[in-house]
Give the backbone structure.
Amino acid sequence: MKFRLTLTTILNLLWCPALAGRKPAVAIVALIAATALLVADQADTAKTMMEAARKMEVVDGDLNGAIRQYQAVIDANKQDRAIMADALVRMAGAYEKLGHAEARKIHERLVRDYADQTEAVALARARLGDAQGVERPVGIALRKVWDGDTSGTISQDGRRLSYQDYAAGNLRVRDLVGGTDHPITVSDYNVFESAISRDGTQVAYPWINNLRGLELRITSVQGTSVVPSRRLFASDDVEWISPMDWSPDGKAIAVSLQRGDQTAQIGLVTVPEGSLRVLKSVDWRGPTRIFFSPNGRELGFDLPVSDTSDQRDVFLLAVDGSREVSAVVHPSQDVMMGWSPDGQHLLFASDRQGGSMGLWALPIAEGKPRGTPELVKASIGTGWSLGVTSNGALYMGTRAGDGDVGVVSIDLAIGKQIGPPARPIQTFIGSNSQPHWSPDGKHLAYVSARGFHPTSNRDRIIAIQSLETSNVREIRPRLSYFNQFSWSPDGRSFLTGGTDLKGRSGVFRIDAQTGETAPVVVLSPQGGNAYPQWSLDGKRIYYRHLLPGGEDYGVLERDVVTSRERQVIGGGIANGPINLSPDGRWIAMGSHDRSGGLSSAIVLIPVEGGEPRELLRVRETERLATFQGMPWTPDGRGFLVRKRLPRATELWYVPIAGDPRKLDVDASQWTTGPVGALSLHPDGRQLAVLLQSSKPGREVWALEDFLQALKPAQKQGALC
């Protein structure tokens, strides 16, 4: 039973008739007991309020709401200095995340007025820099600009942001001032990264032309309608090209590209001629970002320090190729972020202080480092740079949340959902995806993304949660990229398609205990994801491969002992992930549609030979989310698939014999998700899904007023 006592209640107890005439000691005992109940109740209330504030701050990301809640804790606990000090420390932390100068004022208040609260004062002194004699810059503002995609760049005036509309496959431009946007292309998932010119009038982007080739194209971003684009550059030997930045005069585009032999290169594509000049080649390694210096003479970029490491340093390269300088060399992770508008500082993110990424500035003069890096702002998160505007605002993209792993209880016998979905994963909320039950049903594995760039596998790990203890252990595959993975039948390893640290594409085995990675099949780099699956006995694997001609896919069976291979199906039949039945007799796949991971039909393929047959075909306005997983039921009689309608999402059961039927399951909160977003537990009653995150998927933030923290470079001749 929980008591709610006030001071008035205590006084009433003292004057209670039942206590009249009793000895003073009895009254005192009553007072002490009642006061103890009051103190305990107040402490419990304060704890509840603090937990609510922490949830707002950490889980919901509502920093302003958390600040108000911390203030409410302070107002309600004026007599408890320990609670007040704790609330002040946490409030200052929320202000720091907002980049607000109020954080410093609170820390100074703690040092000045709360000397008896030694732990809080020590934390405040550390944040003020007293322990190291360092003054922290104040007035730096970190402002959220937009909830949306972050695959493009910002214009110099801070008005236009290019981005990819994943739902439609189009390149779009967002007017951050007017709050409007409009399409730049009309495509079918063929546009990815993009870069806006310095004057905000043009955008460059790579275009995949139906697997026949890759083009670098440019078009105008002015107006509100789609205008024709033109091909700027194309080469049969270039497997991928990423436009990173435009030169200040608009006459060149800095690009990162990869050749057919996996050689990575940094170069310039001239505008309007479209000629490529390679400035640097470096085995398979490539930069996350390249930025021109403000005067256009230097390129700043980051690269892995070796072909067996994903740790990055930052370099400077003259645009005429005459000179390369190692600018930032440190055991930490260092990532290129841009330049100060005057060109006197190179900006980079680093985890060298406390393991969290902070923004640092390196003085630059004459194209060389002049001095030591200085911390501009700590704890900027795992964001990547979208560019620096002319007024000195650094725009960053962050992966706030792609989705949360959820578990839905279902009764397949009656075709109904039992209760609301559970969210078993409570760490790195919004960054977890691709859940997969272990063969024995005792573990749930999933991918947890903690990277600093959307196309980087940095700290993209496989986490494995025990259902018995809820403990989570993590393994980090030695791969530069991996996508869908599957458990081996004995639960000792995973199988995945991806690229290793030497740039080799293929199928890889990952040890489920150590994360050690070994190639099983090496494939052509243009072959795409293999979507490999184990046979039930673990003696064979099945994977997708690119057929000769490079325009279609088939499925191969491979004996893992003898390496002997057999083609299961050829081209023109099916595409996407392979879903092998529990008895190994059937493969279910999506039809041969190329529409961003969606299909119009499901094909059942006999593994030992025979004619494939359609099990389900939907209307023209509907699609089947075959790339998100079609888990088989334990009895092998059918599988589950999501059907996407224009305004709804449904879950269907598709038997290999009989009519498909819609299940009574609420899929409205499920995300469109990445590959492999559905996994059915071996008991057939628990479906792991990807739920809409409590946080938005992508966010754009602007770090403003940070120039005040920078000290001038020691000038020796012209600035770079």
About this structure: DSSP finds six helices and 48 strands in the chain. The CA atoms of residues 156 and 198 lie 5 Å apart. Confidence is low (pLDDT under 50) at residues 1-40, 130-138, 714-720. The first strand starts at residue 141 and ends at 147.
